Amino acid sequence: MTENIQTVTGTIEPSRLGQTMIHEHVALDLSHIRQDNDPILSDDEMQNREIARLVAAGCGGIVEVTNRGMGRDVEALGSMSRKHRLPIIAATGFYKQDYYPRDVFEKNEDEIAALFISEICEGIEGTGIRAGIISEIGSSLNEMTKEETKVFRAAIRAQHETGAPLSTHCELGTMGTEQLKLFSKMGSDFSKISIGHQDLNGDREEYERLLQAGLYIQFDTIGKNSYRAEADRLEDLIFLIEKGYSKQLMLSTDITKKSYLKVAGGFGYEHLFTKFIPALKNRGVSEDIIKTMMIDNPQRFLSF
Ligand SMILES: [Zn+2]
């Protein structure tokens, strides 16, 4: 059976995906948690100007990891995907305990796994739009709570059953090793798993532990320099590239607020293409390595 990528506008051949951002939010609403209107992104005039700029900067695919409880809106994703002729992959999943809707606490592992499987195989909330990834499955800072462990186990079982890719959230880069242990214990295929927010980690021993096991890792908060200086991210990434791990590295910006958008004066999704990738090239990283991280890896990881 040939493997394809499941986007919000239907199944596509992997080769149709261009330079792909592996962990983004394009339509989300976290205002109910953060008591603030900044973390609301929608299919409005401002966001469409932002996406038009992003496509012009070279983006050829977005993995949209907003899940249940984060104000996911897959119809908005479908609309933006068509307007900009940009492949967008939607997610099923739950984020981390502070963001769980009530039903997570009420459902058991079997029921949560069944929910994820139905969003991948049948569709999301009656729209007929199917999820193409299980994401962003999160642990809390320096801890994976009991409820988070239940969601992780359900996500892993849905991954095994469907073959869909799975990517995670590591709060400030923590808990990657514990996530690895759980994936190992449950016998996961590491080639379908990617560990998120590792650029916030900075622990090169842990990077190598995850990479040597065969997982992908994501440098996916590029541009969020209040969390970590751009130069430090860059040095860690170059270290890993020089060690020969480029086939397991993927990049993104993880924008979640209007004030981060370029059109609102922020760094913008395009920062990855207009600033960070040029900085890598300046340091001698070849076009081939950029293509590996931005095109080949997402095409391979997202196919099932
Ligand atoms: Zn995120």
Explain how this protein is built.
- This protein is of the alpha/beta class.
- It contains eleven helices and 13 strands.
- Helix content is 40%, strand content 15%.
- The strands form four sheets. It has a six-stranded parallel sheet with strand order 8-9-10-11-12-13. The chain has a three-stranded parallel sheet with strand order 3-6-7. Strands 1-2 form a two-stranded antiparallel ribbon.
- The protein binds zinc ion.
- The site of zinc ion has 5 residues, from loops.
- Zinc ion (ZN) binds next to loops.
Topology:
Layout: E1 5-7, E2 10-12, E3 20-24, E4 28-29, H1 31-34, E5 40-41, H2 45-56, E6 61-64, H3 74-84, E7 88-89, E8 91-92, H4 102-106, H5 109-121, E9 133-139, H6 146-162, E10 166-170, H7 176-185, E11 193-195, H8 204-213, E12 216-219, H9 230-242, E13 249-251, H10 271-282, H11 287-302
Parallel strand pairs: 3-6, 6-7, 8-9, 9-10, 10-11, 11-12, 12-13
Antiparallel strand pairs: 1-2, 4-5
Helix pairs in contact: 5-6
The structure holds zinc ion.
The largest sheet, given as strand count, sense and whether it forms a barrel, is: 6 strands, parallel
- What is the fold named in CATH at topology level? TIM Barrel
CATH architecture designation: Alpha-Beta Barrel
Fraction of residues in β-strands: 5-15%
Structural class: alpha/beta
Counted up, domains total 1
Spatially, the strands of the biggest sheet line up as 8-9-10-11-12-13
Bulk shape: globular
| C-alpha end-to-end distance | 9 Å
The number of distinct β-strands equals 13
- Radius of gyration computed on alpha carbons: 18 Å
The named CATH superfamily: Metal-dependent hydrolases
Kindly state the mean pLDDT as a whole number? 97
What is the chain-wise order of helices and strands? EEEEHEHEHEEHHEHEHEHEHEHH
* Count of DSSP-assigned helices: 11
Helix content, binned percent: 40-55%
